[in-house]
């Protein structure tokens, strides 16, 4: 089953890492959406423009929302000084499909699979950063992935927050082979050469963003993310273009 409104999850999931959610013993969070532009798949040379949902709900230490490229449910297990540690389970509701791009013809679809995750995030007045580790727990050979980000942030005025900083992702051989490898049967169907993708750095990137608080309840914002495929990902015959650019304009109601 496809979820076309959830395709730009890589953009959607940047929001919870940057918009504040104040949750004690009551339901809080934000709900909204916007327009996003992103590559048809990781390594595509063509882009798509779609609606991007933005949602995060929290009740005490429990939350539902975006984590890396997953829609997940989790638990903030500890807050120590400026650090927050969480764990949970989620899934990418729209993994790569053969129909996403003509270049993928013959490769088949990547299955939706549950992934367990754990994360650590640090924040002070001028810096926000973190790492997220996730592992396929559905038996679909989609392996382990580690992502990280570090954002410098500042407020030129009280209602505006600007931030910018690097991102990266590293993955094991199971994840890389599923995303960028070409098996013998896929090579026969697609015409692409057989390719074995090993573990290593998948992407490095840079993100630039802005949040504007129109009122205490309404926000608007923008995100631009430039990424570059590395090593086995860049060398894959599936990847037509190593440079990847994504963007998002959104509005959200915070409660």
SSE blueprint:
Blueprint: H1 9-12, E1 27-39, E2 47-59, E3 62-67, E4 70-80, E5 83-91, E6 114-123, E7 127-136, E8 144-157, E9 160-171, H2 173-180, H3 184-190, E10 200-213, E11 218-229, H4 231-235, E12 243-254
Antiparallel strand pairs: 1-2, 1-12, 2-3, 3-4, 4-5, 5-6, 6-7, 7-8, 8-9, 9-10, 10-11, 11-12
Walk me through this protein's architecture.
The chain has 255 residues and is mostly beta strands. The protein has four helices and twelve strands, in the order αβββββββββααββαβ. The protein has helices at residues 9-12, 173-180, 184-190, 231-235; strands at 27-39, 47-59, 62-67, 70-80, 83-91, 114-123, 127-136, 144-157, 160-171, 200-213, 218-229, 243-254. It has a twelve-stranded antiparallel barrel. The chain is globular and about 55 Å long.
What is the compact description of this entry?
The chain is mainly beta. It has helices at residues 9-12, 173-180, 184-190, 231-235; strands at residues 27-39, 47-59, 62-67, 70-80, 83-91, 114-123, 127-136, 144-157, 160-171, 200-213, 218-229, 243-254.
Number of helices: 4
Strand content: over 45%
CA-based gyration radius? 18 Å
Structural class based on helices, strands and sheet pairing: mainly beta
Q: Which sequence of SSEs, written as H and E, runs from N to C?
A: HEEEEEEEEEHHEEHE
Number of strands: 12
Q: Sheet bearing the most strands, described?
A: 12 strands, antiparallel, barrel
Instruction: Outline the low-pLDDT stretches.
Output: 1-23
Helix content: under 10%
Determine the mean pLDDT: 91
Q: Name the strands of the widest sheet in spatial order.
A: 1-2-3-4-5-6-7-8-9-10-11-12
